[in-house]
């Protein structure tokens, strides 16, 4: 039995973040960093507690999470479906893929003026921006994952008489799953980046709205709090994606390393 390496301890990845926070607090207490430039972690925690007591924090976090989830689901389903069909049907690949690749090169946040004209500054505009940002990473990784499935395995499945459905569910989809999950993890990061920008455009609620309002009143502790909230939500999203990776890819040695 192999001995577990010391750096595989679950607490080890938190060493660097904790060290940064300790140094940040220390520099603030020694007045090497002023509160007007960067509030200390303790001041940020106090600001968060004040907002929590009034209920504002929970409300804004819930609204932002809801927008992110709806946009992610819409964009993810569209991206996955396009990647799936283009990856398995040659006719559709020839017809659609080139167009998608051209559109993909346009920064989706550059569409903001058009989005405002199309949807106004309501919820639809914010969800649309998130969905567009999410769609392309999932599409690319789904499409490439399917295209890179070992052709020998597919041929073997055909020789054993597997139907098209069983060929897809037993060979193609599992073979493409690592790439698809990478796309999902990347798309989750894009989700929060898109939302940060979307919520600064005419929003009346959400974490981005908190940041904009705090900036106008020079409340630096709240501004930093909003950044920390986005970081926590992004990390939580990535953690959930990693859990799915470990569960869906148990058969893959690269995702089942017990060392």
UniProtKB/TrEMBL annotation:
Residues 61-241 form the ABC transmembrane type-1 domain. Pfam families: BPD_transp_1. It is found in: Cell membrane. Its main location: membrane. Keywords: Cell membrane, Membrane, Transmembrane, Transmembrane helix, Transport. InterPro entries: MetI-like, MetI-like_sf. It is a multi-pass membrane protein. CDD domains: TM_PBP2. It comes from the Bacteria. Belongs to the binding-protein-dependent transport system permease family. This is ABC transporter permease subunit. It comes from Oceanobacillus jeddahense.
């Amino acid at each position: 039995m192999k001995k577990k390496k010391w750096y595989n301890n679950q607490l080890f990845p938190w060493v660097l973040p904790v060290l940064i926070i300790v140094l940040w607090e220390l520099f603030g207490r020694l007045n090497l960093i002023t509160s007007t430039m960067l509030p200390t972690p303790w001041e940020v925690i106090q600001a968060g507690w004040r907002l929590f007591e009034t209920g504002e924090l929970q409300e804004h976090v819930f609204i932002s999470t809801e927008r992110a989830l709806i946009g992610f689901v819409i964009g993810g389903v569209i991206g996955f479906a396009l990647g799936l069909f283009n990856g398995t049907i040659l006719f559709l690949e020839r017809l659609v893929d080139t167009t998608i690749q051209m559109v993909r090169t346009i920064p989706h946040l550059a569409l903001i003026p058009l989005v405002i004209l199309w949807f106004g500054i309501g919820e639809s505009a914010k969800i649309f921006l998130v969905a567009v940002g999410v769609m392309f990473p999932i599409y690319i990784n789904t499409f490439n994952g399917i295209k890179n499935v070992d052709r020998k395995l597919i041929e073997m499945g055909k020789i054993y008489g597997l139907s098209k459905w069983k060929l897809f569910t037993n060979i193609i989809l599992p073979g493409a799953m690592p790439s698809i999950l990478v796309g999902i993890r990347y798309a989750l990061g894009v989700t929060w980046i898109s939302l940060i920008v979307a919520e600064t455009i005419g929003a009346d609620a959400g974490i981005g709205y908190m940041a904009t309002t705090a900036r106008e009143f020079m409340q630096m502790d709240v501004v930093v709090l909003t950044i920390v909230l986005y970081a926590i939500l992004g990390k939580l999203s990535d953690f959930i994606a990693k859990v799915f990776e470990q569960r869906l890819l148990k058969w893959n040695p690269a995702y089942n390393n017990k060392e």
